[in-house]
Amino acid sequence: MTIAFHKPALSPRQASLRRLARSRSFQIGAAIVLAIVLVALLADLLAPFDPLRSNARMRLTPPNATHWFGTDHFGRDILSRVIVGARISLSIGAATVILTGLFGTVIGAIAGFFPRFDNPIMRLMDALMAFPSIVLAMVVSAVLGASLTNVVIALSIATMPHTARIVRASVLVARELDYVEAARSLGAGELSILFRHVLVNAMGPLIVRLTYVFAVAILAEAALSFVGAGPPPPAPSFGAIIAQGRDFMREAPWITIFPGLAIVLSVLGLNLLGDGLRDALDPRSTM
Q1: Model's pTM, two decimal places?
Q2: How many other β-carbons are positioned within 10 Å of the β-carbon of residue 45?
Q3: Which end of the chain is flanked by fewer CB atoms within 10 Å, N or C?
Q4: The domain 22-46+64-281 is classified under which CATH number: 2.30.140.10, 1.10.3720.10, 3.90.190.10, 3.30.420.40?
Q5: What would the pLDDT profile of 117-169 be if each residue is shown by its tens digit?
Q6: Where are the domains positioned within the chain?
């Protein structure tokens, strides 16, 4: 007689963690993002030179043993500026993610859970989505003025409508589930049901969306800086370094090449991380 042993079923959380552990995309993306975050946190220790200090004698020096990434038109070390720029660019991205996640979640949750608010809120979001995100960010930044804080506000306003729609879609599905009706029949208040039961189901799509927002914020900051609407000099964000080197692309292409590669690496890491999270948080995944 053969006795069959069945493995105990994994909980949804255990299944998600198992998919994460097996996801090559998540592992590579997390490694890249972690490395960039560590560089940003340790920028003061890793930067070989003062990123703001000019040296006319070293102006437009090509990459060499002393200045690995070369110098700019003021003689400032590009490697040091890229390292410190990682902190500024990641700060802009993180602040944008926080504001977008907070306000997008609140707006999407209210629109999805309370039908009387759905139409007016979503029509406003549709009006904002009618403009390309980068164009809307440029307009807001131009109106508010060029500063680090205003760039974050502009990017948050530009990315919030899409986030709100994603949360709303998840809430519309979750509010019809049986356990929500059971909680309501037990006397739970509407806000309690929304925050304790419904929004839990929106966290997966929201987290994936916010990794995309982080990458978009880094790219958009570079675009805003390129047209003069980004953080004002001498802040060495990725976009600001590229913008300051655009007039010297023929004689000193390294000024724009290395911060451009930093942007590519950051966005690649965040996209891979988001893909891994999407696969892990998808209950239909069979990985």
Answers
A1: 0.85
A2: 7
A3: N
A4: 1.10.3720.10
A5: 889 999 999 888 888 888 888 888 888 887 888 889 999 999 999 999 999 98
A6: 22-46+64-281
- CA dist 97 and 215 (Å) reads 10
The pLDDT of residue 235 is above 90 = no
The pLDDT tens digits of the residues spanning 63-104 come to 999 999 999 989 999 999 999 999 988 999 999 999 999 999
